[in-house]
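Q: Predict the bound structure with N-carbamoyl-L-aspartate.
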Amino acid sequence: MIIINTRCINSQQYSLENLLNLCKLTDNIRNIASTSKGLKYLKTILSDKRAILYFKQASTRTFLSFQNACYILGISTSEIRDTSTSSEIKGETELDAIKTFSQYVDLIIMRHPSSEFIYEILDNLPNDMRIINAGSGTNEHPTQALLDFYTIWKYGLENKKVAFVGDLLRGRTVRSLSLLLNKVNETKLYFVSPDKFQIKDDILKQLNVEYEVTEDFEKVLPDMDVVYMVRLQDEYGGTNEIIDTTKYSINNSNINKMKDDAIILHPLPRRNEISVEIDKDKRAKYWQQCENGMWIRVALIMDMFGVEII
Ligand code: NCD
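A: Predicted complex:
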């Protein structure tokens, strides 16, 4: 097994080989976890380790899937989600808070509203401290990208046309995933959104694969192999405008324009960009995506600690 890194910070750090190894490791782990004996074995793997989940932004899936990934590996966890209960309320800096809990744990899993803070803590903690970026402002969400990549990999990775639809301006999962898919041969990416919500140039400039920036969802929909929807990220402000979900959504009136073997993804939470009635369609894979998230996080953590499965 390849030790990817003691840190999971951004998409750029992963090679295609790293990604494929991680996908295969995830499948191996799931296979082991399919029996009670296997699950008990997994629980011994990192039972001498402790992790903290430091989440300064709302989270359901990322928080719970990381917490459960830790449980699967026997890692004990503690958490700070509400900083009104920590000494930050007394004026302690975030950096001091992190330096404090780094004395107690082997792994820090952090979600933070700032795009830069994750990089600041890297310089301030010892190299053997495992650190995972569980979402950094509007910039990156590498572990969501890993689970999205894994989900696409399960349905075949190469030669895919992938559309990202919705608030691409502030949707960090789209930014991170497009940089991972950029490593895959013959991928073509479509960024589909009203102009005001389009993906920023800093991502487009890094792409080697073909891509198209368009406002016209109905036009591209029939050609897509993967349609990745995201919600309006209005908690970040910057504009009061909204996206017209009569134009940028999947529902009973346009689902039949999609290829039969296409897949629909969404990092969740959703609003009305995917109607609930679509959940029953065989192309809807976003609930599987959730489950995949927990398992690839198990694989990621194992890999970061350099442990092998026997
Ligand atoms: C995403 C996030 O936090 O960026 N959610 C998640 O982690 N599954 C997407 C979102 O909040 O829209």
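A: Residues 286-304 form the longest helix (19 residues).
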